[in-house]
Design brief:
Length: about 350
């Protein structure tokens, strides 16, 4: 899904691997990726690599590395090292010490746990790959959603699940367990072409490569006019207040409607059919799984009886709960890491 999104935004995708998508480009593409990609957790820039077969060699080559090409002497950094057993250097702590010493003694940098710039160093098969995290805070922190409920769906995941459902903003969307409104707000932003990173700061602003002209890439306006509206409901009046606050801060409150209602009594909004997408409780962290079977069963009954023509997407870690809905799901998609669990999107075609 992320590859598809990146290509759709005009990025030069050069590789796809578990956990990541590689793109090629100059620093303006780095800035644009942070501002425009909805599904990425962070944007790392590979700034160099070298071979090292023991700690002394790592120390020597780290001291010769051109840190000043990217890192500013007046900005503290943090070093995160990951090693693999395929490398002769396998002790991440010892490797971190050598790299930090090189940064302090050769580049005059300060090391700090709360630094605004993070170096990601991976030692795999004796190859040391050095990357800089240009995002800072993870990209699901859009900068305009202060209020969250229990077990929230990250915005980045929500955007990719919407894409997996074929959502492009041209049809309405309804979430009958909307919590603080993540799916609904993401859907509205997608529909009108708002940049996900328009309201926040980034790590790349602290690098030598940053050009203030990058601000010209930041857009707070809508690219297009949304033709439909987006709806959410929840039985908790408190989280509905949160959702309305979040929508207003995101600047999409004119496109969304939130109501207090039980999911078991959901009715379709007026207008054409679209997508129902839900992130219900799984029972693993919130509540008891056994108590959720009737909830899923009732939800499936309501959708089948009232939502003819609507497509459905349900995110859950429990396939048995999804099956309890009785919905005609398409073949399973991939499982995704979410909050310490593996979740999956269960999708349908338009309901009969």
């Amino acid at each position: 899904m992320l590859t598809e999104e990146a290509r759709g935004l005009g990025f030069d995708v050069t590789g796809v691997e578990p956990g990541g998508v590689s793109i090629a480009g100059d620093w303006s593409e780095v800035w644009r990726a942070n501002l425009e990609l909805r599904g990425a957790t962070r944007v790392l820039v590979r700034i160099g690599e070298f071979m090292a077969f023991h700690l002394a060699q790592l120390d020597k080559r780290a001291r010769k590395f051109p840190w000043g090409d990217v890192l500013r002497a007046d900005v503290p950094v943090r070093v995160d090292v990951a090693t693999s057993r395929k490398s002769k250097i396998y002790h991440a702590g010892a490797a971190t010490q050598r790299i930090e010493a090189a940064l302090r003694e050769e580049a005059g940098l300060t090391i700090a746990a709360d630094a605004p710039v993070i170096l990601k160093v991976r030692i795999d098969d004796n190859r040391v790959t050095v990357s800089v995290d240009t995002s800072g805070d993870p990209l699901h922190k859009r900068g305009h959603k202060p209020a969250v409920g229990k077990a929230p769906m990250r915005e980045t995941l929500a955007a990719m699940f919407l894409r997996q459902c074929g959502f492009d903003g041209s049809a309405p969307m309804f979430d009958p367990m909307c919590g603080s409104g993540t799916f609904v707000i993401e859907a509205a932003e997608i529909a009108c072409g708002l940049q996900p990173g328009r309201s926040r700061a980034f790590g790349f602003e602290h690098l030598t490569t940053y050009n203030p002209n990058a601000e010209a890439l930041r857009r707070s306006d809508r690219l297009r006019r949304a033709q439909v509206k987006f709806f959410g409901s929840d039985r908790d009046a408190g989280v509905i207040d949160m959702a309305q606050t979040n929508a207003a801060r995101a600047g999409v409150d004119d496109l969304v409607t939130f109501t207090v209602a039980n999911s078991g009594e959901a009715t379709p909004p007026e207008g054409p059919p679209g997508l129902v997408i839900i992130n219900p409780p799984y029972g693993a962290r919130i509540g008891d799984k056994k108590a959720l079977y009737p909830v899923y069963g009732r939800l499936g009954q309501v959708l089948l009886e009232r939502f003819s023509g609507w497509r459905v997407g349900i995110v859950t870690s429990e396939g048995s709960l999804a099956k309890t809905t009785g919905l005609p799901f398409l073949p399973d998609g991939p499982s995704i890491a979410h909050g310490g669990l593996r979740v999956r999107l269960y999708r349908t075609d338009p309901l009969p």
